[in-house]
Amino acid sequence: MRVYISADMEGITGLVDAEDVQPSGRDYELGRLMMTEDVNAAISGALSGGATDVLVNDAHGPMRNLFPGELHPRARLIKGRPKPMSMLEGLEADFGIVLCVGFHARAGAPGVMSHSFMGHEIEDMWLDGRPVGEIGLLHAAAAAIGVPVGLLTGDDAACAEMTEWDSGVTTVAVKTARDRFAAELRPPAESRAAIQAAAHSAVAGLLASPREPDLAQKPKALAVRWQSAAVATHLLGIPGVTRTDSRTVEVTARMPDLYRLLGIFLRVATTLTNQAPYC
Ligand SMILES: [Zn+2]
Hints:
With 279 residues, this protein is of the alpha/beta class. It contains seven helices and twelve strands. α2 packs parallel to α5 (188-208).
């Protein structure tokens, strides 16, 4: 089974603050190492569970966080940005499972470093009327490509958010949120052992009882409420995009095209607001 790993940073073991996850941060280099260790734990578990190959997509901020020389030697790495499919770049139907490592809760949720794609610019998002963030959108896009999400690691809020979308996904909470920039940490060795064991059982479990892909997906409505009305105004230039109030746009399309379109929304918003995507 081919295994795909989408690696974010806010939900990595030991990290709680922008200082840990942004390139200008005082502890960013340590954060990169912690991220590489969590991803390596997932790769080791996937391989022992039956993975034939592992593709890792560095999916946070500059998307140049993981240390290639320190990454498990059996894994290949997608590094850098922008990428048309962003956090799912490189995922094709011939993969058997997606493992989400280091994910975080959506904007407004009481989770560690909670946000949706941008630091502040996206205030809320809804998928078919239901509040959604990076976790729900990635899950829906991967399902439309034909690959189930089998594991998510992050804080307890990210794990709960994943479970709300799909109770069949194994989750590993590596920290418990105390506030947006504070958490009670699981000891790193224990956390990585839990990630490795969960990745093993997610891959082995899916090999033992495969899930049929649900490719008959209906178009979905995505609404995004921006902080800046200017972003909504400019997005109206994209055919099919409508505005429901001065700052909220809506568009209906099939996944995964909708996910790719959201990437264009984000690049427009970044250009207009000078606020870098954070993912
Ligand atoms: Zn991120």
